[in-house]
Amino acid sequence: MKISKETFETEIAICKKHFQKKQCCAWGKCENCGVLPLLQKLYKDEIIDEKEAVTKYKNKILK
Asked: What distance lies between CA 40 and its chain's CA centroid?
């Protein structure tokens, strides 16, 4: 199952909003969250599973 670009961007925006306000969302703490890699998997069918790669991806997205 793939998600649309619109859904992907909306969900990323929600993550950014919580991250910038230093708030935890319902998924938990940002540093332990798996939502961003999951969204990437659902949108681009790309799996990011190595810890270093996940951290790099999160830093890139949440800037």
From this structure: 7
HEC secondary structure over the chain: CCCCHHHHHHHHHHHHHHHHCCCCECCECHHHCCHHHHHHHHHHCCCCCCHHHHHHHHHHHCC
For the chain, state the CA radius of gyration.
Answer: 11
User: pTM for this structure?
Assistant: 0.84
Count of C-beta atoms within a 10 Å radius of residue 13: 10
- Calculate mean pLDDT across residues 5-22: 93
Task: Report pLDDT digits (tens) over 33-53.
Answer: 899 999 999 999 999 999 999
Nearest to 61 by CA among 20, 7, 22: 20
- SS3 for 28? strand
